[in-house]
Amino acid sequence: MKLHHLRVQAFGPFGGVEEIDFDDLGAAGLHLIHGPTGSGKTSLLDAICFALFAGVPGARQRHRGSLRSDHAAPETRPEVELEFSVGTRRLRVRRSPDHEVPKKRGTGTRMQRASVVLEERHDGGWTTSATRADEAAQVIDDLLGMALEQFAQVVLLPQGDFAAFLRAKPDERGKLLERLFDITDFRDIEDWLVEHRKQLETAVRAADSRRMTLLARAQEHLVPVGFTGADDVPEDPSDAGTVDPDAGALDLDAVTAELAARSTTSLAAADAARGAADAAREVLDERRALAALQRQASQAAATLARLDAQSEATAAAATRVALAERASRAAPVVAAATRRAKAAASAAADLAAARRSLAAVTAWPVPALDTDQLPDRLDAEQTLAAIRERRAAGDVALGGYAELNRQLARHRRDVERARSDAAGAEDRAAERQRAVNAATERVEQQRAQRAEHAEIAATVGDLQVRHRALERFGTMLAGARRAIADVRAHDQELQAARETWVHAEGHAIRLRARRLSGIAAELAGGLRDGRPCPVCGSQEHPEPAAADDDAVSADEVDTAEQECAHARALVDDRTAIASAAQGAARAAVDEVLAGCGDAVEFGVPNHLRDTLATHDLSGDALPTVLAALDELERLRAPAADQAAAGLAAAQAAQRTVTRLDQVIEAARQHLEIDGLELAEAREASAAARARVAELRAAVDAAEARLREMRADHENACGCLPFEPSTHDLPDVIGGHDRCADLLDALLAAAGQHELARGEAATAHADLTAALGELGFDSADDVAASQLPTTELRALADQVEAAQLERAKATGVLEQADVAAAAAADPADVAGAEHVARTAEHTAKAARDEAAAIERAHTAVQRIAAEYAEAERESAPLRARLAVATNVAAAVTGGGDNVLRMRLTSYVLAARLETVTALANEKLAVMTDGRYSLEHTDALAARGGKSGLGLRVRDAWTGQTRDTATLSGGESFMASLALALGLGEAVIEAAGGRHLETLLVDEGFGSLDDETLELVMTVLDQLRAGGRSVGVVSHVPELRTRIPAQVRVRKTATGSTVEVSRADAEVA
């Protein structure tokens, strides 16, 4: 690869157009690129990388957005053009980064997307090869065989990086080598072997776990039957890991045979024990039956003996029962006679009490009515008749007395109520007067308040206009921010669609290229003997091309091209959507600009207006516009809040005025009502006073009539033993009614006394007849012979039960089997029960033991079969695991790998060994044979990566030492040698492409004159074969040694480039 010509425009520090003809410089073989710090020497190297790879090396890649020169005019397009050749092919690439350009209409800028044009020279002219970034990248990658990072290390030779590489630890050195040499296949091998070992470990662990589980299950069945062994079986099979479970485990086959023998023996013992238990049960049943008959005979004999001893008591009880039954028949007659006699005595007492009560309260002459003499009884009846007549006259005299007395009480209550009503009416009139005065005062206060609030409410209209304008402006700002957010979102979608399209297009291009590379095999697939070849026409096909395993078919290419077309269509759709979003955002921002005139409350700064008017709504300008909108919102919000607060206060005052109008009107209406109520209260007071006088007259009339009725009663009745005129009017009627009630009670008691006396005589006659019939002398004899019902019933039941027991006991003793049992010896039931219980327990234990042994035998026999199957399945896995473990350990630096060197480290070590050999060719010249680099694969300390060590051998001392002991100049030479050696190694690994251009960046200032001369010798050697070598340095000594120079100057208007050779100078 060789550089021919470089042209930069508005790129980096270069504001104008600068050109370098590397062919002119290459004529001298060695050229110098120099200039003051910050002038742009490294920017020329960045321009070469940008032209080839659309990026710049290292940390500068993060600042790709600043590639456009700040010194260039706004309309100048940033661009890099590089002409280079690879082998026999000569190409020219022209690339421009993303940059801002002035809008064609209006003010502000818009984003111009990156572009690239790749051309190839054919027959003296240039032919376009690619205009899309992905196509150009694919062609350049195929030609160079390396990426940006490799190119920056191999062609540009940054000495600072290789000085660090020289002194780096093996791990850090390995990271750089991994970036330059592709070891993906070897890393994949490492990963696959480790993963394969893990899979086999998991499978073996699962197989071992299964076997341990089977042993544990067998142990569970053996322990209950008394089998002990295999104590090493873990309780948790998951703890077995990959340990061989055969160690110390059960011999399941031997255990199965032993269980079979024990099962046969236990079954025979169980049958024998069962027969003995059945025989013992039969003996027990016979003895229990004999014991039951003997108990019946004994119990019957005891019953008869007890009944004979109780015979006299039983006969006495029967006699007492008969006497009590006759007394129970006479008892109701005795009770009736006694009850009637008591009723007659009670009636006589009531009659005497009624007479005493009446005589105690009346002036009437009350006769005695309990005499048995006829003349006395007739006189008493005549006297009672006269009393009844006087009572009737008294009733007539007092007719209407009670009603008139009730009317008098009502009149008196009415008088009191009327007086209370009059007082209440006067109070209400006074209260109404006070209410009218207070209401009048409140109306005056409310009218004053209304006047104050009406003045504030008059400003509502102006405040509403102000508030609506600010809210409308806020809505515009929110709409503009949403529109800008939509632009961002659609730009991201467009970018994603473009990336998808680029990926799909690259995939399609690679598939087409692979298909073309294998087209010979595809054509060979259609060849037939005797038919002409479509390419050469021959009918013989001695060596047809063979298809690769990864050959691409036409269908795969078509599918990839369809996906590419779909992706391109999606890009077009997203572009249209993004453009529409930008238009909508521009309209929203323009609306905000138009609305700025309404935002007079806070004033819009001119710089915010300019920002909104001049900036394009795309790319990097969006944050600026969005910040301006946010600033406007920050200015608007306080003004809007203030306007809203003022409007709310005015509207509140307006509502207060309306409310006060309603309150004043309601107060006026209430004032009118209070006036009417005052007049009504005064009228009611006058009416109440007139009512009091009227009711007082009615009370006086009623009292006079009552006095007249009392005098009439005294003359007609004379029931009261005192002078009525000395008592209150209610006492007259109360006394008369009391005498009348007591007279009625006396007459009723006399009638009841006569009736009770007759019934008592009849009951006494019935009693006399009943005592004679039942054989009793008196009522006391009947009472003495009676028994309580429960006692009588119990005594009768006792007699009946004794008779029944005697009959049953006699029947039992007359039975033949009972008589035979009574004559036999006593049955030994307890002994038979003990024998039967012992035999049954023995039989059950034998049966359970036989069943348990049989179950254990069946289960262990099944487990033994499963265990044997598991052993057969796990044996191959275990063997494969041993191999996989050793191989994985070896390739990952473990196991028998004494150097702890991974496979990838081994490959990188081989690469480093090659780099070291190539570097020593250059270092031997630069150090006059003193120093050489040695690659060491010694074991690294503290677990570090082995195989990537570097040492330096000093031929003068014969010692090997660490590279960190080299001086600054020595380190530079060693770093330069490493850079050259690594470059050649990378080229060789990438396909052996020859580099005809090398650029060495900095580091020469640390060399003395003699050493510098040796280094220059090496650089001269690099010129062999027409190679062009450029040295980037600001060391003055090199300007006298290297005539061909590129001088970079920095000025206030941007950097410039001057190219000079030994015989001429080109600006």
From TrEMBL:
<protein>
    <recommendedName>
        <fullName>Nuclease SbcCD subunit C</fullName>
    </recommendedName>
</protein>
<feature type="region of interest" description="Disordered">
    <location>
        <begin position="414"/>
        <end position="433"/>
    </location>
</feature>
<keyword id="KW-0175">Coiled coil</keyword>
<comment type="subunit">
    <text>Heterodimer of SbcC and SbcD.</text>
</comment>
<dbReference type="GO" id="GO:0006302">
    <property type="term" value="P:double-strand break repair"/>
</dbReference>
<dbReference type="InterPro" id="IPR027417">
    <property type="entry name" value="P-loop_NTPase"/>
</dbReference>
<feature type="coiled-coil region">
    <location>
        <begin position="678"/>
        <end position="712"/>
    </location>
</feature>
<dbReference type="GO" id="GO:0016887">
    <property type="term" value="F:ATP hydrolysis activity"/>
</dbReference>
<dbReference type="Pfam" id="PF13558">
    <property type="entry name" value="SbcC_Walker_B"/>
</dbReference>
<dbReference type="Pfam" id="PF13476">
    <property type="entry name" value="AAA_23"/>
</dbReference>
<feature type="coiled-coil region">
    <location>
        <begin position="836"/>
        <end position="873"/>
    </location>
</feature>
<feature type="domain" description="Rad50/SbcC-type AAA">
    <location>
        <begin position="6"/>
        <end position="200"/>
    </location>
</feature>
<comment type="similarity">
    <text>Belongs to the SMC family. SbcC subfamily.</text>
</comment>
<feature type="coiled-coil region">
    <location>
        <begin position="276"/>
        <end position="310"/>
    </location>
</feature>
<dbReference type="InterPro" id="IPR038729">
    <property type="entry name" value="Rad50/SbcC_AAA"/>
</dbReference>
